[in-house]
Amino acid sequence: MHIIRDYEAFSPFDNDILGNVIQLRQKDTNKQVVIKKFLYISSEKKKIVDDEIAMLILTQSNHIVKFLESFIDGLDMCVVMEFCS
């Protein structure tokens, strides 16, 4: 599992309704990824984020952006997904 310091900022995207989306480069692999950061403070928001992560894990397919991992960074849950150019 990685932490946010394992990534280097590459390019910000527009904010999503639920979180911020950032294109980053994973330092150890030089791989470009997208991290979606969700505020992870209330039980309601935690449930929404946890449900989205569970859905991403269950729906792994060649036709859907791949979920790579998730981790907590301060008050945010970071969801790491493959970058599709």
TrEMBL record:
InterPro entries the UniProt entry points to: Kinase-like_dom_sf (IPR011009), Prot_kinase_dom (IPR000719)
Gene3D superfamilies in alphabetical order: Phosphorylase Kinase, domain 1
Gene Ontology MF: a single term: protein kinase activity
Protein kinase domain residues: 7-85
Pfam families xref list: Pkinase (PF00069)
Superkingdom of origin organism: Eukaryota
Protein name per its UniProtKB record: Protein kinase domain-containing protein
Organism of origin: Streblomastix strix
